[in-house]
Amino acid sequence: MTEQGSHEFVTRSSEVEYTGAILALRVDEVEMPGGRLAKREVVEHHGAVAVVARDADGRIAMIRQYRHPVGRRLLELPAGLLDGGPDEDPLSAAQRELAEETDLAADRWRVLVDLVVSPGFTDEALRVYLAEGLHQLDAAEREDEEADLVLEWVPLAEAVRLALSGEIVNATAAAGVLAVAAAESTGTVLRATDAPWRDQPTAFAGRS
């Protein structure tokens, strides 16, 4: 008998059942403790980035955007997919998304927190940046859901209250808001933008 917590979960077979525009569904057979093979469905997804853009008054730039799967508008952080291929730089993607969704740029960037979104069934992972030293850009052209989004400036304390009261339910937004508050209250030094990102997904982008 192997020591508890030391089993190596080897993938014995793998089949891609579906490939779409932003995800693929893969079914793996994985060796469990004791030798049994179990099927595990894995949704491959692009990685993503999000931005906590904070102004000189401590307010956070948030967007209210319609999300079709839940059928309503959610208060979120500016965010987007790393859909430019496996070599796309996450920081560049974050800067692009901030400009496209809020017409803002930032002079100072740091890594705030890394997230694996729902590791029970998907490899989707997301890096959240803190952006400061904000300045205005020309208005971007927007289409589809983004043509209807609204920019809202939310004080950090109010954003924390909204997350804890269930008003902010987007997982990335809640994590980003609470991470900023925690870093501020503890004096934690945030990582540089070139910090390693261990869980950045590559499988789906590699199929393109």
From TrEMBL:
Keyword Hydrolase: yes
A single MF term (Gene Ontology): hydrolase activity
Keyword Lyase: no
Gene3D superfamilies per record: Nucleoside Triphosphate Pyrophosphohydrolase (3.90.79.10)
Residues of the Nudix hydrolase domain: 44-176
Pfam families: NUDIX
Keywords, alphabetical: Hydrolase
Gene Ontology cellular component list: cytosol
GO biological-process terms attached to the record: nucleoside phosphate metabolic process; ribose phosphate metabolic process
InterPro entries assigned: NUDIX_hydrolase-like_dom_sf, NUDIX_hydrolase_dom
Protein name: ADP-ribose pyrophosphatase
